[in-house]
Amino acid sequence: MIPLFLAFRGLARAMVAVWRDPETKALPLVAGILVLTGTLFYWRFEDGWTVIDALYFSVVTLTTVGYGDLHPTSPGTQIFTIIYILTGLGILVALLSSVAQQYLKQKAEMGKLRERLGSRRRGYPEEGAKP
Question: Residue 38 CB: number of other CB atoms within 10 A?
Fold first, then answer.
């Protein structure tokens, strides 16, 4: 249970790092707006869909899971879905790759820190340190 908690903590830290980085700061916001746009569109234009149905379909579509239990029924919503997938997939991939990049960067920094702490405990001088 502890390793799972630590993994989620690392993921949360990576997401915060993406949010703070000026180059990637807009990605979470754009992804959120994309999901909101899809949710509102499907809720409004698909007959019988609740907000939850529309949100579910938007997320399942953008993540390319595609269970097939819900699908657009009119030509207008089908065309919107094509554009939504092509646009959203790129944005979601950019967001997920930025989070993964930050996660790996933090893991590497923690590994270096542990290595330095371990060498100090053993009494070995750090690399490049003067005696």
Answer: 23
Beta-carbon-side half-sphere exposure of residue 67 (alpha carbons within 13 Å) = 8
Q: Sketch the domain layout of the chain as residue ranges.
A: 26-104
Give me the residue label for tokens 């019988």: 48
d(CA 102, CA 79): 35
- CATH code of 26-104, in short, is 1.10.287.70
Consecutive H or E run containing 33: helix 26-45
Q: What is the mean pLDDT of each run of 10 residues along the chain (131 residues)?
A: 86 92 92 97 96 96 91 95 95 94 90 76 59 51
pTM: 0.74
Q: With contact defined as beta carbons under 8 Å apart, do 38 and 54 qualify? A: yes
